[in-house]
Amino acid sequence: MYTINSHEFEYNYLKSHKPLLRYEGGDFYKWQKEAKEKLAELLGFPYEKGECKAEIEYREEKDDHTEYRFLVETEPGYKVPCHLVVPKGDKEKYPLTICLSGHGGGMHVALGKAKCEADEKALSSWHHRAMAPRAIKEGRCGLVIEARCFGESSLKGYGTSCTEASKIAILMGRCTVGERVHDVSCILDAVAEAFSFIDMESIVCTGNSGGGTATFYLGCMDERIGFVAPSCSVCTYEASIAAMEHCMCNHVPYIRKYFEMGDLAGLIAPRKLCIAAGIEDDIFPIEGTKENFELVKKCYEASGAPGNCALVVGDKGHFNYADLIWEKLYEMGL
User: Contact at 8 Å (CB) between 78 and 182?
Assistant: First the structure.
């Protein structure tokens, strides 16, 4: 006799339930306020803030930029390693790009630095993972942050250890992606205070995969991010996170009860949102991304800014499509 397995039952249960807080018309900004309050609750906010000061460890002069290494205490007892690269020039102010790494060796890859052969392979074969050098190329500062459970913040000081910390966080009503969003917002406070040459009115946040996920949720929660540009990460939960094996750090308790991922774009609107995807991405499938983008467009239409969202599709798999993203950002008024 056939008996449905637990996994299949849970997936069918998710599919059969419509998100409770989907925007269905009416006062969009009233909905936006209510939805943001709910998302903050689901992400585990509020988190207690640490000192949120930049403790600069060193400054190095390079050929085309200056690099700062610093720490920021984002929660009492927890310090986040960061790097800021600044183009050399005579400008009074430089715009900022926040470069959020995905799963890999650590933030050094986003800086274009290799610690081992695996990093060298990643930098040579994974498109545009060196996000900070790309920010310099665009005439912008690049802020690189060691995400919780990655690199120096992982159990072994290299690679990832998301599952262990994420399980503990959930026991306390927290979640890893919420902690990452909190960290970036605190670090922005510290950077604004410590580096007067940064133009805080022109902030881009971008990242691929897990970095794209953090980029998206940060855009939902922090209105200082004027241009939100996640790559290979924004897809329906039904087609991606719920449909196959994904890292624990992608999971937010109760999230699908209230929202599909595209619904949350309404918290970014009317700010600029450029979503990149790979046509052959096997963990954020393109059909789910396109379905998700229909939800995104409805939110942006309701906000009165239908032209402020875009989907760009690369011709390969799970990569950071930086060329497509930057081209589109400039088209969108960056």
Answer: no
